[in-house]
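Discussion board: Methods & Data

I've been asked by a reviewer to show the raw model output for two of the constructs in my manuscript, not just the figures. I'm not sure how much to include, so I'm pasting the format here to get opinions. Each protein appears as its amino acid sequence followed by a line of discrete structure tokens. Is this the kind of thing reviewers expect to see in a supplement, or should I convert it first? Here is construct A:
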Amino acid sequence: MALLQVFLILVTLTAVPSIAMEFKVEEAEIRMLAERWELAWNKHDMQALAALFTHDADFVNVGARHWKGNREIETQHAARLDQFRESVWTTKEVTVQFLKPDVALVHVVWALRGDKDPDGTRREPREGVFTWIAVAERGRWLIRAAQNTNQGNLRAPTLTK
């Protein structure tokens, strides 16, 4: 019995580093999603952007418009391309939290400059946070759900004890 316990402990100890390494590889692949988003955005390639999403993805933009499916995500981004043709996206930070081995919560902190309002007026540079649910499908990570939020100019409340 003691030999079996020692064997199980050894198996567990040798498996833990490989599991941790696997998550590091998966995390790197998810971080590549954010890099591919930035590259597609800055090339203004809405087809490449839509390819980062599952076919049944949900996307809520900074204006609270809800688009369903990667085709609608592509179509709606392409329809607004004139506003963003001169824009430059910068990914500032990416955090990844695994909810399951094949599902991750991702936060992408971003900055954008050079975009315009629908009437053509230049916007001030802005920042925000993208929240993604990323899923592993057929050996690759894709965005299943996305919520994009502009950073507001609300002052933080004063905390009292």
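Construct B, same format:
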Amino acid sequence: MIETNPKHLVGQSITVAGLAENAHQGALVTLSDGSEVYVVGLRRWDKALLGKRVKVTGFLQRTKLAPDPDVNEKGEVSHGMYGSSLTLEEASWEALA
């Protein structure tokens, strides 16, 4: 089970362990080093799992989850996210004790 940034394992099937959290882009697992891995297809964690330690198994990818923010002529910044995020596709999960 992986508990730190798994970026070197992109393209592989892995299992991560961390804290179940929700974000604007969807459900994610925050690992012990602060890295985040989004769970593809899971919009929000169930109340029973939210804030708890979970393990999630899936196929690790890098995915663009939101458009880059735009800055208009007034300097106002739109909502967005630069770069890509680590995601787990075809994922399954369960609570950890």
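Answer (T.O., handling editor elsewhere):
This is acceptable in a supplement if you add a one-line summary per construct. For B, something like: The chain has one domain: 7-67+78-95.
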